[in-house]
């Protein structure tokens, strides 16, 4: 099948072009933390695919015609209708972004001593579980441990471990099963429908509610159509609908597959749970017909959800990720295989074997991409997941030293990605030149957003 992006640029934004000297200064001033960089010092911003997608003319037209009524806004009814058709959930609550959905749902479902079990909790998801006093436990499938294997569904939850937990001594503590599609903390890998159905069945059999973290539901559906036996003839929309119906509800940031700068929702089947969440929502986020969103965002999301399941769009987006993955491999940089859609995960540990985990090779590669080419991306390795002692020295490294290169939706084109691959190739020619980093200062909670680093001597 020939694919190309089924849209063209109609309005564009200028890209900042900087000198190496400017970037060295900006990164030093940022404490060598990409989250502290001013965006006008970033040339290609691959920090996240969240809220960074390009909106369509239809989305902007819908946003311009939004109804700003406090209660009963027509924009809300459009938002609810599209989500109810997609999920078949009777209860749809708008919230301003995914972490607000997490906070509202988890503070209703979880409590101190409870366990939230997941294929992998995303960082803010884990934080919102922990803020309720519960424990966030990740049970990724065994196939994920081999970064190079071409297993199609390395985002799955490990079913034997889930069953052991639900039948073992801690069974009474399990408050929810949360399946993240696609598995952002787990290499952006998809979850199969077979795995999702089996996990839901296990949870139900033990009276535990099961929810989706559905931030990338459309991209997961596309990968199911491509990779899972029995799904090749289905549309991504049919697969997405089936996924939502396998579980009791969802939290979903709509800044990803809603292709919107802001927005999220909670979808639920249980009326009593929905009512309790609604009380929390009204007290903390906003009334039930806007949930902290502007009316324009409700309409942007509703239109974005119409666009995101277009097979031509998903094919082009998946093709773009696969092409960049090939270019990275040609440049001598291994990625977590097989390539997903929303991001590539570069194997920095393998590229920079001269750097021990305590010198954070993932972070070093991310810094080098910025210094060499103004490309911003983020470490997913020991800096993010390892444990530190009181002197901020690494004691337990993460299992992998990765860099996530996220691909914003409809924003960059082949020329930009060719440039990224050229910068990667230049780094990969002399990887031993790349210095390690040490931590200067790191807060205990969500440390990767706020830490300050320095090049190691
Ligand atoms: N769940 C997943 C799987 C996510 O990837 C994110 C955000 C959230 C929940 C929280 O949603 O940002 O709307 O509050 N991920 C972004 C990222 C930030 O870069 O991966 P949010």
TrEMBL record:
Residue stretches making up the Aromatic amino acid beta-eliminating lyase/threonine aldolase domain: 45-422
InterPro entries named in the record: ArAA_b-elim_lyase/Thr_aldolase, PyrdxlP-dep_Trfase, PyrdxlP-dep_Trfase_major, PyrdxlP-dep_Trfase_small
GO biological processes: antibiotic biosynthetic process
Coiled-coil region(s): none
Main EC class the enzyme belongs to: lyase
EC number from the UniProt entry: 4.1.99.1
Keyword Cell membrane: no
Pfam family, one: Beta_elim_lyase
UniProt xrefs under SUPFAM superfamilies: PLP-dependent transferases
Cofactor(s) needed for function: pyridoxal 5'-phosphate
Family recorded in the similarity comment: Belongs to the beta-eliminating lyase family.
Protein name: Tryptophanase
Organism annotation: Amycolatopsis jiangsuensis
